[in-house]
Specification:
99 residues, alpha+beta, Arc Repressor Mutant, subunit A, 4 helices
Length: 99
């Protein structure tokens, strides 16, 4: 599976953000780090979990926590995205204004 911009951003955040006491990253922190809307982060976590790049758990408050898997770390390293190298940035396409 070829990951797109938001997927790479979320996967990178799962790897790089500080972890909680269980080794997980919270969806709200991922949204803040990536500047993606929380619903988008949740959808991307669902997709990444389905592909085995992260392991996610849904919390009782309808939020997610996630941990990057070895497969996810390998995917980032194959894309050349390591903690010591570049950071992925996401810039959504500009929307045309209707006048």
């Amino acid at each position: 599976m070829k990951l797109d911009g938001p997927e790479l951003l979320v996967l990178q955040a799962c790897r790089d953000l500080p972890k909680d006491q269980y080794g997980n990253v919270h969806d709200v922190e991922i949204a803040q780090k990536t500047r993606l809307p929380l619903p988008d982060v949740k959808a991307v976590l669902e997709s990444l979990d389905g592909e085995g790049f992260v392991s996610k758990v849904r919390l009782s408050d309808d939020h997610y926590v996630a941990e990057i898997t070895p497969k996810g770390k390998l995917e980032l390293s194959q894309d050349g995205i390591t903690p010591a190298t570049k950071k992925v940035t996401y810039q959504p396409e500009a929307r045309a204004r209707v006048r």
